[in-house]
Amino acid sequence: MEFKKIQKIGGVCAILEAFIYISAFIVYGSVLSYPNADVSIQEELNFLADNYIILSIVNLVCYVVFGILLAVLVLALHQRLKNYSSSFSKLAFVFGIIWVGLVIASGMIANIGLKSVIETGIKHPENAMQIWSTISVISEGLGGGNEIVGGIWVLLLSGIAIKGNLFSKPLVFLGIIVGIAGVLTVYPLDLFTEIFGISQIIWFLWIGIFMIRKPVALVEN
Fold first, then answer.
1. For residues 94 and 91, what is the distance between their CA atoms, to the nearest angstrom?
2. Count of Cβ atoms closer than 10 Å to residue 6 Cβ
3. Residue 166: which of 100, 91, 89 has the closest Cα?
4. Residue 25 to residue 12: CA distance in whole angstroms
5. 6: left (phi over 0), alpha (psi -120 to 50) or beta
6. Segment holding 105, helix H or strand E
7. What span, in angstroms and rounded, lies between the C-alpha atoms of 94 and 100?
8. Which of 54, 82, 141, 161 is most buried (most C-beta within 10 Å)?
9. What is the reported pTM?
10. CA 174 to CA 177: how far, in whole Å?
């Protein structure tokens, strides 16, 4: 009974993560319009100050809340897979938890840094933007611009699922695509990041529904 409950909770978390991804695409693609590289330092600071609340909320939801939900999903999937490949399931769990930490840290750094930049910008605009540039690089490096850790986690899960016949074959195939795209984000090409993001939305939705509908360790294909 407890196992099924954890699976269903993990499934709900996966679906919520998909919606967080979608919301982030909408906000960054439509609601917020970042200044281009030609604007002045003061204009960029004004943008950050004017949108401080929404940027803080987006960072909180898309990184910190996402990371908390991810932690629950990582645990639920570990419980589901651990009896079929003890060593690889532990390795997947480790990569999953590392990804959780990186994502949450990225959001916390971004939010604390944003507040510091706005406060510094009142008297020292140029210093503030240098700080913001450094914070952006650190934040992106931890949880936005490189998805290799998340990619390895999904790849390991998919590999274990093949061995144990734990997910449907199409879901496993999608997981392999997500994982490979995540690993390839180590190469600085936006295409791989976009493929990872879009395919993972589908993967989160699919595996979430799968875990809710079939909260058992073995499925028949």
1. 5
2. 19
3. 89
4. 20
5. alpha
6. helix 86-121
7. 10
8. 161
9. 0.90
10. 5
Q: For residues 177 and 182, what is the distance between their CA atoms, to the nearest angstrom?
A: 9
| The dihedral formed by the CA atoms of 61, 64, 68 and 69, expressed in degrees to the nearest 10 | 30
Distance (Å, rounded) from C-alpha 92 to C-alpha 66? 18
- Spatial CA neighbour of 172 closest among 156, 195, 148: 156
Contact present, 177 and 184 (Cβ < 8 Å): no
8 Å CB contact between 69 and 13: yes
> Using DSSP, how many helices (H) and how many strands (E) does the chain show?
9, 0
Phi-psi region of 165 (alpha: psi -120 to 50; beta: other; left: phi over 0): left
What does the pLDDT profile of the chain (221 residues) look like in tens digits?
588 899 999 999 999 999 999 998 888 877 777 777 677 788 888 888 888 999 999 999 999 999 999 999 999 999 999 888 888 999 999 999 999 999 999 999 999 999 889 888 888 888 888 888 888 888 887 776 678 999 999 999 999 998 777 888 999 999 999 999 999 988 877 888 889 999 999 999 999 999 999 877 544 43
Up-side HSE of residue 30: CA atoms within 13 Å toward CB?
6
Q: Give 187's DSSP letter.
A: S
